[in-house]
Specification:
6 strands; Rossmann fold; Arc Repressor Mutant, subunit A; 237 residues; alpha/beta
Length: 237
């Protein structure tokens, strides 16, 4: 649960996991300047991050991927499995990074470049904590095109397998899922289909429930891995 101040205002609890002390210090200085954010702790490797997540119960974990002892991918998977209420943001150096893709597969809710602007970092933490948005959705889509459907990093592209669960979605829910996979926000989806944002949120919630998915970014990963979205060819319903 988010921390509370003396004024009972809910705050988003953040755990920093990175082996570079200077980077942790920079993120701490940025995030601690916001009244609604609280740094609960810092870890210098994935194993320490997993342990601190168990005791501190953060809302959001900022997770580096290349660390000693336990890397951020394994740590992300363990935190997501053991503490599903925590949302993980992967920190990476390059936008088209196989580690970032592996982090999303492991259950991360988003990824950010390490040189992210301060206001973007703050906004990303808030968005991921809310569960309503994917950070840099179009970059996320490009990453998934590279590593899921296009056989990036010398991996052969897997044959698409249509999940029987897709049959449980209504035609409108299929449209909304496709729009999510394109990287559209709730507002953009609402505009495209002439819906209210509240209706779009309802559709998104039902899609996640029916497909047994954790959050929006997992829905995007799902859409690519099942062949619902094929790069440069639009949607395959």
């Amino acid at each position: 649960m988010p921390e509370t101040t003396d004024q009972t205002t809910a705050r988003i609890g953040v755990l920093l996991v990175d082996d570079q002390p200077l980077l942790r210090m920079g993120f701490r200085l940025i995030l601690e300047g916001e009244d609604d954010l609280a740094i609960l702790g810092e870890a210098s490797d994935g194993a320490e991050g997993v342990a601190l997540a168990a005791t501190l119960k953060p809302d959001v974990v900022l997770m580096d991927v290349r660390m000693p002892v336990m890397d951020g991918i394994e740590a992300t998977g363990r935190i997501v499995r053991e503490h599903p209420e925590a949302k993980v943001i992967i920190l990476t150096t390059f936008d088209l990074d196989e580690y970032a893709f592996a982090g999303l597969q492991a259950g991360a809710s988003a990824f950010l470049l390490k040189d992210v602007a301060p206001e973007e970092l703050v906004n990303a933490v808030r968005l991921v904590a809310s569960g309503d948005a994917v950070v840099a959705p179009r970059v996320t889509a490009r990453l998934l095109e590279t590593y899921v459907r296009a056989g990036g990093a010398n991996r052969p592209a897997p044959a698409p397998e249509r999940d029987p669960l897709l049959g449980d979605l209504t035609p409108r829910e299929l449209e909304v899922l496709g729009a999510m996979a394109e990287g559209l926000s709730n507002a953009e989806i609402a505009h495209r289909f002439f819906l209210s944002e509240a209706t779009v949120k309802t559709h998104v919630r039902r899609i996640l429930t029916k497909l047994h998915l954790r959050d929006r970014v997992q829905a995007v990963v799902y859409a690519y891995e099942t062949g619902l979205v094929i790069p440069s060819q639009g949607l395959d319903y």
